Amino acid sequence: MIDYSLYNLGQDDLAFLNDMKDALENQNEVKLQYKDFSFVIEPSGKTCVVVSYEKTLGEFDCFEDLLLHFSLDGSPLIEKISDVEYAD
Q1: What element of type H or E holds 29?
Q2: What is the CB-side half-sphere exposure of residue 78 using CA atoms within 13 A?
Q3: What are the tens digits of pLDDT across the range 29-53?
Q4: DSSP codes of every residue in 2-23
Q5: Which of 2, 10, 39, 40 has the most crowded CB, counting CB atoms within 10 A?
Q6: What is the pLDDT of residues 62-77, one digit of tens each?
Q7: Is residue 87 within 8 Å of 33, Cβ to Cβ?
Q8: Which pLDDT value is given to residue 1?
Q9: Which residues contact 83 (CB under 8 A, 6 or more apart)?
Q10: Can you tell me the distance from the alpha carbon of 82 to that of 86, in angstroms, rounded to the nearest whole number?
Q11: Which of 60, 72, 79, 74 minimizes the C-alpha distance to 32?
């Protein structure tokens, strides 16, 4: 379990993370945008697979693993979450 208080997250960030987690737990993919980079998080049981333009960028054991180990601009996703939004 991640201690979110260790990161500079606002209420909107926490709500966004909870929405993402709920979607993935319900086996729904999540389409995201970071700057001009689009990617999709695809649930597969409890694991999460990150895909962009049909290329697998990583497979993670769980949502928390994804937040801590998927990097955007050299930083973990959890540290960039305020700059991430849902993609169309």
Answers
A1: none
A2: 18
A3: 999 999 999 999 999 988 999 999 9
A4: --GGGS---HHHHHHHHHHHHH
A5: 39
A6: 999 999 999 999 999 9
A7: yes
A8: 84
A9: 34, 35, 72
A10: 11
A11: 72
